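Write out a record, focusing on structure:
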Amino acid sequence: MLLTAGPALPDVQVQTEDYFIVFAADAARYNPARAHTFAAMVRIERSPDGAMRVVSTTSLSWLPATMKVRAMALLPETGRNVPLVETLQWSVKNGDHINAWGPYRVTPEFAETFRTRVRTVEDTFEYKGACLTSPKRVCDCARSIEEMIHPVRRYIGAFGYGAAAGSYIVRKFTPWFVEAERSHPWVGKATGLEEYPIHWRAHGDFSDRGDQLRASTHRK
C-alpha cells in the first residue's frame, strides 16, 4: 500500500476517510490517578490510483495543565488538551501500559462531531478528576470523550478508568463505525504510532471494573 506525503491532491480526485482510535494508559498496578483515556481522529485522502496520505490528526487527551492528576480535588482546575505525541511520550516515561482499539473507519458525521467536541473542550472546559456531580463543562479525561454523544453523566467509580473507560467508549461509539469490528492497522502505521509500545486490542477485547480491581493488586 503506497503512502505519500506530497502536496494535497485535487478535490475532484480525492476520497476522504476518517479513522478513530481509542487509547488507554494504565500503571503496571492499577491506580485511578494514573489511568488515562484519550482518543484521536485521523483523516486520510485517497486518490483514484490508490495513493494515500494523512491529512490531519485531531486528538483529545484532557489532563490538568499541571499534568498532575488529583483524584480527590474539591475544585476544578485549568485543563489542557495534551497533543497525541506528547501524551504517548508522557505515558511511556511514566512506565504505563498503553492499550488501543482501532483504527476504525467512522462516518463523516461522527468525525465532525468529534472535532467539534475537541474545540469545545479546549475553549470552555475545566478539568476535575472526581467530577460526577460537577457541571458538564467540568470533566475528566474519560468523560471529555464519552459525553460528546448522549451526554448523560454516568458513574465511573475508582476502578472504571483507563482500559475500562476506553472499552466503554469503543462500545458506545460502535454504531458510528463504518465496519463495526474491522480495524485498519495501516492507518496507525501511517500516523507513526509504530514508534510506541502500544498493545492493539481487537473489538470485543474489553476491560471492566473487575479487571481493573484485580489489576490494582497484581502487576500486569
In short: Residues 1-5 have pLDDT under 50 and may be disordered.
